[in-house]
Inverse folding.
């Protein structure tokens, strides 16, 4: 078996190059997967940026979203067998999915939605897990009473595209999403947002709908830029969850006065620390597959690139870096 991968070049970390990694045997909880498609997320570009800043000692294979076929299973794997079609978001501490073959922990893997093709499936895992964990494990909006409000900052991106329907399906909250361009506004409405507002002046936009504050805020971009506004808008005893790290200290004055809570959602926490509930991610992916197969949610795939190459990976990263993607970009191998 010849394995091909596209990796960060340690000699020129701003560039990718092709390598042929050696085949490795699965660990006790691992699946060996032949990767069929992989999507590119902001985390890919951030890790690449970190490598450019800090340097690398050896090639690093990025990619944390994939769909593929199981070729081998570890000794403690349950629920999967050779030939199964799977999808997953991976583990940031291990070699990624920008490779023809990959080892992945079965506990953070789900069976691929049968109604979706490889590209459509690869667009889902990372954003589904981030949206689900942020909404239900951090904000607990599934416990919210009727009439509570949720503001999703960045509704048309990959995470927002699934956070909107998840919130609609599994909670009683009124879903408010931000978007600016007409196509992005429609994208959010199509996914079930009750209200779509322009992020450039959220207080004034909410005022148009008779709202001065919101109970829950799910921030999916620019925590620093939106922080002052979010602290102003969050209701007393409300909750803010962000998936974007802040670059500057965040003033907690408003949150303290309001007894409001700040949560961080990092999808790799469970796999990075081997938490006792690591298998919860596999359960979320199985639940998401059922929602997709029953038509209750749809894939967030918006652009497909053909082939695993330096050129396609570079193009995919550039699309994500431009910051205007609706949904996800996927490479089909």
């Amino acid at each position: 078996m010849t394995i091909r991968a596209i990796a960060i070049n340690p000699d020129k970390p701003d560039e990718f190059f092709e390598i042929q990694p050696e085949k490795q045997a699965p660990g006790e909880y691992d699946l060996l997967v032949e990767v069929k498609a992989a999507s590119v997320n902001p985390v890919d570009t951030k890790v690449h940026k970190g490598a450019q800043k800090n340097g690398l000692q050896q090639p690093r294979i990025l990619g944390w979203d994939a769909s593929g076929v199981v070729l081998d299973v570890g000794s403690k794997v349950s629920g999967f067998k050779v030939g199964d079609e799977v999808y997953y978001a991976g583990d940031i501490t291990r070699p990624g999915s920008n490779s023809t073959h990959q080892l992945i922990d079965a506990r953070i893997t789900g069976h691929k939605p049968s109604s979706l093709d490889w590209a459509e499936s690869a667009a889902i895992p990372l954003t589904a897990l981030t949206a689900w964990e942020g909404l239900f494990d951090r904000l607990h909006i599934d416990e919210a009473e009727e009439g509570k409000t949720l503001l999703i900052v960045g509704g048309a991106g990959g995470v927002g595209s699934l956070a909107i329907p998840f919130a609609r399906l599994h909670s009683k909250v009124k879903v408010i999403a931000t978007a600016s361009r007409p196509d992005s506004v429609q994208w959010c409405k199509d996914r079930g947002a009750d209200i779509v507002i322009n992020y450039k002046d959220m207080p004034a936009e909410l005022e148009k709908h008779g709202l001065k504050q919101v109970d829950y805020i799910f921030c999916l971009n620019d925590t620093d830029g939106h922080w002052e506004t979010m602290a102003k808008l969050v209701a007393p005893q409300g909750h803010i969850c962000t998936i974007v790290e802040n670059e500057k200290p965040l003033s907690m004055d408003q949150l303290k006065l309001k007894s409001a809570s700040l949560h961080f959602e990092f999808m790799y926490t469970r796999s990075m620390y081997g938490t006792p509930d690591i298998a919860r991610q596999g359960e979320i992916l199985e639940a998401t597959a059922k929602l997709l197969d029953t038509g209750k949610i749809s894939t967030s795939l918006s652009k497909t690139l053909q082939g695993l190459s330096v050129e396609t990976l570079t193009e995919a990263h550039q699309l994500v870096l431009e910051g205007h993607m609706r949904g996800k970009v996927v490479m089909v191998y």
Observations:
- The chain has two domains: 5-124+269-332, 128-264.
- The longest strand covers residues 30-40.
- The radius of gyration is 20 Å.
